[in-house]
Amino acid sequence: MTDEKLYELCEMYGARALQWRSKFIGLLPEVERRRLYLKKGFSDVFEFAAKLAGVSQKQAQRVLQLETKFADKPILKEALTSGEISANKLAKIASIATVENQEILFNQSKLLNCRSLETLARDVRHGNDLDESVAQDENRNGLFERKNDDKSVHVNTLAKIENLIKLNLADEVVAKLSELREKGIDVSELILEFLEKRENEIEERKAKIVLEQALKAKDKVVVTRHIPVEVRKVLVEEHGTKCAVSNCKKLAETMHHTARFALVKEHNPYFMAPLCIEHHEIAHAIDLRVQRKK
Question: Residue 139 has what pLDDT?
Fold first, then answer.
């Protein structure tokens, strides 16, 4: 037997083991209700789960708690008890599950891994609505919209010069701003002017890139999936190195096309944003759901 064949068998049996384990765990709430473990000589449902399938007490308790949590959410309850979705996944979204959003969460749980589901739940707890996060344009993938207006954030943050220290500005910068304030200069207005100038410059660069791409398209230049350097640079300058989703502090690891490349065949910086791995998976999972609805 070759190494590849051995690995193939391990992968296949491992996947099957996980599937059947999930189905076994899903049966535990019914086992508990019927007291089946007593009829078969076990002291409790936890001993039953441990001896028959090596399921820990913690895992058994989790599924029993989830079954209660999903009592009024039949879609999620069925997903749990049938073993269609693992208890580990469902536990990540249990805190945000409602009767209204259970179908959305069911679909997302089938598409996303545990880490991405955890990120999705955190986003919702921070005020991002599941439905509002789905873009309606058929060429767009869903991205969570920022809840705050950038300018108002700057105004509030810079209302007092002392708050600048919280921005981790260099001592030299704080000293110069303090000196300007002592001279009667409106530091907040000065910084806002700088920020607006920066935004205008970025806007001009993006418009120039779009124009250049349009000319290439007119000349029927083949566009590959490779993102041009100038597009990456302007997006990093606009969004920084962190994920573009509001409240996410993770490093961005991929440039996401909100206007799907497979359809539009372009790298338009107006419809791109840097995302962390989890939010990139969420965006594509949402897009799949939108396409299925259509």
Answer: 45
